[in-house]
């Protein structure tokens, strides 16, 4: 089975995939025919996950570095020992919900999750939307990295980071399936930092003050976020078999195609793939970005009107 890479950047307001796991079913279609290297945003859906064993769950920074030829991926021979780092700012009642989530996944799915660690101080997450792109800052990254290192010392081979986001993340446009994920950008900043500094598979799940499950019919693109009080399950399921980073294993040379939305062709992953002669499949999927096929003229960029058309082409190639 061949390898392909599938990227859907978070926080860019993509029509498909810019919300809550709403492109996961498409990734699963590709995974019926290929091994798929995929960033968490494309398969995470709150309590639900589109991940399966034909997918390599690779955080965005590592995804970019992989396609640029700076690291290789090694699929684990046994499930990862997952360490969970909690922001000490998370209120006790909200923390208890997350502890219950961890215990439920350990009992029901047998996930190997070690004893969680609390940060020594508040992480201090701030998020915003600037120039139509989700963004933000971390006020105290040192406390997060210190806690992450403690988990690694305790045997963790993959990390789930849970930071406190307060209660003001509601965005009406996003909730209606037409806006931008207000926290996606800073979530990427958090996971990028951990992976860059510690070289370990990682992903982030936010914790909020409000744990109410919606009792009204919501937009289907965000429905998976409305049926659970925590976003941790999809992260833990993705990290169970997330590949480690090494100097040997699967490299960019094993990847035939990178699939990305047309308009988001200015990423490091795309530029790295072009430099390394990986063919780019640019699929029509409007977002707030505007770097499309017309701006990156290359014989290695193939344009498609739909992910279905893209899949049919690759299957025949």
Give a verbal description of the structure.
The chain has 2 domains: 3-76 and 245-316, Rossmann fold; 82-241, Rossmann fold, CATH 3.40.50. Helix 2 runs parallel beside helix 8 and helix 4 crosses helix 6 (184-198). The protein has a 6-stranded parallel beta sheet with strand order 5-2-1-14-15-16, with helices on both faces. Strands 8-7-11-12 form a 4-stranded parallel beta sheet, with helices on both faces. Strands 3-4 form a two-stranded antiparallel ribbon. It is globular, with a radius of gyration of 18 Å. The mean pLDDT is 92. The chain is of the alpha/beta class and 317 residues long. It is 29% helix and 22% strand.
């Amino acid at each position: 089975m061949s390898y392909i890479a599938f990227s859907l950047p978070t926080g860019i307001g993509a029509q498909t995939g810019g919300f809550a796991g709403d492109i996961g079913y498409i990734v699963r279609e590709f995974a019926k025919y290929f091994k798929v290297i995929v960033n968490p945003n494309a398969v995470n859906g709150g309590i639900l996950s589109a991940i399966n064993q034909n997918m390599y769950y690779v955080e965005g920074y590592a995804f970019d570095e992989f396609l640029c030829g700076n690291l290789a991926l090694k699929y684990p021979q046994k499930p990862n020992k997952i360490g969970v780092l909690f922001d000490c700012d998370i209120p006790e009642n909200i923390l208890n919900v997350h502890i219950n989530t961890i215990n439920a996944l350990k009992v029901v799915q047998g996930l190997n999750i070690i004893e969680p660690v609390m940060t020594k101080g508040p992480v201090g997450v701030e998020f915003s939307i600037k120039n139509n792109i989700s963004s933000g800052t971390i006020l105290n990254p040192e406390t997060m990295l210190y806690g992450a290192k403690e988990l690694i010392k305790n045997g963790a081979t993959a990390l789930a980071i849970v930071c406190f986001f307060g209660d003001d993340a509601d965005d009406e446009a996003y909730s209606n399936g037409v806006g931008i994920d207000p926290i996606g950008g800073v979530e990427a900043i958090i996971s990028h930092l951990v992976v860059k500094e510690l070289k370990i598979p990682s992903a982030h799940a936010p914790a909020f003050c409000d744990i109410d499950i919606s009792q009204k019919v919501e937009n289907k693109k965000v429905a998976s976020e409305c049926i659970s009080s925590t976003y941790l399950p999809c992260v833990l399921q993705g990290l169970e078999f997330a590949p480690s980073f090494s100097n040997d294993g699967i490299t960019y040379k094993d990847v035939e195609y990178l699939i990305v939305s047309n308009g988001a062709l200015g990423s490091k992953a795309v530029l790295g793939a072009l430099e390394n002669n990986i063919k780019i499949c640019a699929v029509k999927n409007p977002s707030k970005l505007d770097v499309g096929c017309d701006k990156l003229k290359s014989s290695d960029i193939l344009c498609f009107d739909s992910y279905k058309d893209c899949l049919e082409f690759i299957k025949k190639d």
